[in-house]
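Sample entry (651 residues):
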Amino acid sequence: MTPSGNQHTSPLQKSLQEWFGFNGFRDGQEQVIQTIIEGRSAAAIFPTGSGKSLCYQLAALQLPHLSLVVSPLLALMQDQLDFLKSRNIRAASIDSTRNSDETRQIMQGVRNGTIKILMVSVERLKNERFRQFISRVPISLLVVDEAHCISEWGHNFRPDYLKLPDYQKEFHIPQALLLTATATPQVMEDMRQKFSIASHDIVATGFYRPNLDLSVLSVDQNNRDQELLNFLVPHRYDATIVYVTQQKTADTLANVLRDNGINAVAYHAGMTSDERDRVQQAFMDNRYKCIVATIAFGMGIDKSDIRAVVHYDLPKSVENYSQEIGRAGRDGLPSRCLVLGSRDNLTVLENFVYGDTPSAESIKQVLHLIRDAGNQWEVQLHPLSTASNIRQLPLKTLLVYLDMHGVIRPQYSYFAEYRLQYVIQPHELAEYFDGERKQFVQALLRHVRMARIWGTLDIDSFCQSYVMGGGQADRSRVIKALDYFQEKNWIVLESKQMTEVYQVVGNHFVLNELTETLHQLFVKKERSEIRRIHDMIALFESEECLTSQLAQWFGDNHAPRHCGHCSACRGVAVAFPPVPLQPVPESVNIAALLEPLQQKLGFTPTVDTCVRFLSGIPEPVFQKIRARSLAGFGVLAAWPYGKVREFVSLK
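Predicted structure, serialized as C-alpha cells:
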C-alpha cells in the first residue's frame, strides 16, 4: 500500500493500520469504503491485484451486521479467508468442503455476531436450508465478487448471478458492493442498473499496468515449443504460469519443460481436487516454479511475485487475456507476458462456443415439459440436461430466458431427498419437547425410513399425512426442525438432489414461435462469443500500442498512447496466417461413421448432434452412450464447425 498523502490521519486510515498494517490506501479504495459507510451501494472496478478485496474487508469491520460475500470459486474464498485469519478477523465460508460440525459452528458464529464476514457460492443461495438460516440473520452488505458474471455481455456470464438483485431484496440487504477487474463500459452499465448503483458511486481506477511488458509473437505450430523454451530457460527460476486450452496439452507441455530443466507441473480439471490443491500449494510455496494450466487455474491466486505469464494457446477473449496477465507482477516489479499466437487452436476455441448453443429441437422439448406441467414445474438440472440434450450452463441460461419471457417464475429450491443418522435414540430426542411440538417431532421421526445406519425422509409425504391427521406442517417447519436437531447434535443430516420449483406463468405460448425466439437468443449469444474471439485476434495483430488498446477496451482513456514496453511499440509486426484446411481423406466415410451413433441413440440424430459428434464436442447424450469410444468421434476436430455442418448437410 502507498501512503495516501493526507497530513491528518482519518478514522478509516487508523482502522487500516490497526487491522491490516498498511500505512495508506491504494487508488480508489478509500472512496469505495467511504461510500459503503455512508450507506450507499458501490462498485469497485480495479485491475487484478489492486486491492479490491480490502474494500469489503475494511468496510465490513465498520458495519453493524454481517457482510455476505458471494464468490464464484472456492479458491477465491479460501485465499481471502486465509488472509483475514492472518489479521485476526472473524470470517468463514460455508461450502462443500465443510463437514456438518464445522458448518454448525459457523452458523452459530453468524447468528451470535462473532463472524462478521460469511463467504458462499451463488449456488448456495438456492439451498433451501441455507436460505432458511440466512433469512433470520441481519445483513448489512451484499458483496458480489467477480461481478461481471452477472452480465450476459461479460466474458464469464453465470445465469445464477442474475438472481442476486432479487436475493438482495429477499434478505432485506440494504447495500451491495460489486467487485471486478474486467468490466467493459457495456458490462459496467449493466451491473450498475441491476443493482441500482448511482453513476458517481462506481469507482474505476484504470487498467494500465506500467510494470507489465506485453509481447505477442506469431509462431508456427512446429516452432512453438522452441519459442517457449527461448522465453523461459534464461529465467527458469522465476515463478511462471503457462496457459493452454486443453488438458492433454498441459500434461504434454509440462513434460517438455521438465526435460529442458524447468521445474514445471501440470494443472487442469482432469485431475482430482486433492491433486489440484496439492499442485497449487506447491506452486504458491515455490516448490514448483512453473505451472502449465488450463484457465481453471489462477482465479483468486494471491501470489505477488509471478514474473511471467505465457499464453501457449490463444486466450478465449480480450477480457480473459486481461484477467490472466493480471496475475503477473502484483508486487509492482517488472514482469513479462507473452502470447505465442497462431490460428492452430482457433477451431478449438470456437467449438467450445458452438457446443453451448442448444438446438431448436432441444428447446422445444423443454417447452413441451413446461406446457404439460400444469401450474407448477419441478426441475432437477442433471436429468433435464440429459433428457433435453442441453449442457447444464446453457440450460440454466434457458431457464433465465424463460423467466424473462414471462413463461416461468422461480419460486424456491429444495432438496428432493433428506437422509439422517441418529446420534441419540429417536425416543430420547422426542423427550426434549412438550405438547404439540412433541407430537410433531414423534410423527416426523416415525416417518423416517431407516436402513442399517442412515434413514431417509420424504418431507412432502410427511407434511401431507400430518395435515390430514389434523396437525400443522409445511416444508419450512420440517426444515427448521431438522436443522435444529443437527444444531443440537442429535442427528447428522445430509441433503441430495437439488430441485428447483417454478410457477408456470404463461403456458399458452405458440410453441414454434417461442422456440424460434429462444433459439435466436442463443444464436445471437453464439455470434457475440465468436466475435469476441476475433476481436482479440484483431487486437493482437494491430500495429497500435497493445497496452493502450487494452486500456481503451475497458473504457480507460488515460493510459499512454505509446507505452514503450509492448511488442507493438518495439515495432514487432504480428500476423496470424490462416491454417490451411486439410481435405477429408477419401477413406473417411462420414455416413458409415454416423451409423453407429444412430444405433446407439436409438433415433435419428439432428444435424447439430452429428456435427458435434464428428467435431469431438461433448453433448449430454454422448455421455450416456459412451460416444467417445466410437470411431467417428472427433474425426473432424480440426475443421471449423461451419464447414463440418456444410459437409454433414450435403451427406
